[in-house]
């Protein structure tokens, strides 16, 4: 079972800790929608940053796997050349 490398959780969009002097959190609906929009964009930015990190790790894993496969293909090719160069009539086969 793989271990979690990242945790991405949604944050509350309309919560505000400090009210203004009158005890109101926001002046009007436009202020609320602007705050929600800015916080939503910030969360999408964080999500995009996580996705970029995941894709970079995936790309690095694919590159290392490709290099290992290339080395194995070269070894198999060398073994095939050696096997083709052997003459079964000249080599002694043990029974």
Give a description of the structure.
With 95 residues, the protein is mainly alpha-helical. Helix content is 60%, strand content 0%. The longest helix has 57 residues. The protein starts with 28 loop residues before the first helix and ends in a 10-residue tail after the last helix. This is Nance-Horan syndrome protein. It comes from Zoarces viviparus.
Can you summarize this structure?
This is Nance-Horan syndrome protein. By secondary structure, the chain is mostly helical. 60% of the residues lie in helices and 0% in strands.
Summarize the helices and strands and which ones pair or pack.
Layout: H1 29-85
> What is the mean predicted local confidence, pLDDT?
81
Number of helices: 1
Structural class: mainly alpha
Instruction: Please report the distance between the alpha carbons of the first and last residues.
Output: 47 Å
**Shape estimate:** rod-shaped
Low-confidence stretches: none
Strand content: under 5%
Helix fraction, binned, reads: 55-70%
Rg, Cα atoms, Å: 31 Å
Total number of β-strand segments?
Answer: 0
Give a short account of the largest sheet.
none
Oligomer: single chain
Elements, N to C (H/E):
H
């Amino acid at each position: 079972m793989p271990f979690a490398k990242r945790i991405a959780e949604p944050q509350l969009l309309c919560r505000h800790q400090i009210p203004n002097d009158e005890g109101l959190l926001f002046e009007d609906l436009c202020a609320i929608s602007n705050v929600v929009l800015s916080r939503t964009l910030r969360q999408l930015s964080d999500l995009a940053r996580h996705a970029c990190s995941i894709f970079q790790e995936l790309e690095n894993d694919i590159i290392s796997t490709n290099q290992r496969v290339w080395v194995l293909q070269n070894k198999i090719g060398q073994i095939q050349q050696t096997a083709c160069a052997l003459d079964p009539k000249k080599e002694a086969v043990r029974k």
